[in-house]
Amino acid sequence: MGALDLLIHGLNFAAPALGVAVFMLLFKLIARKLAKRPHARADSAWVSAWVQLGVNFAVGLLMLAGGLWFFGRDGMMATYGALLVGVATCQWVMNRG
Q: Among 19, 92, 85, 4, which residue's Cα sits nearest to residue 57?
């Protein structure tokens, strides 16, 4: 396997974790806008949003890697279910329940 193939496979492995992390961030921002809660400072909201995106992405990658280790192959539906539960729990904890 060449370097380009390895890069493509790695990006395809990480894509579900990134997609779920971005979805969680967008859902949080939309929910905040619908609730019409003003921010303390505009830039602090984006900093926390970037931190939440990074943490959710890291947790998602850990869940996918754990599923790959446990099942021995990528793409199992149980792994994707664990990905959703893990990232949603992480988002809930970061938003203080």
A: 19
**Which pTM value belongs to this model?**
0.83
3-state secondary structure of 79: helix
Cβ neighbors of 80 (< 8 A, separation 6 or more) are 16, 67
pLDDT in tens, 45-97: 556 888 999 999 999 999 999 999 999 998 899 999 999 999 999 988 888 76
C-alpha distance from residue 29 to each of 11, 52, 61, 73, 84 (Å): 26, 11, 22, 34, 18
CA within 13 Å, CB half, 34: 6
What's the angle, vertex CA 62, arms to CA 44 and CA 65, rounded to 5?
150
CA pair distance 50, 22, nearest whole angstrom: 10
Burial tier of 25 (Cβ tally within 10 Å: 0-12, 13-18, 19+): middle
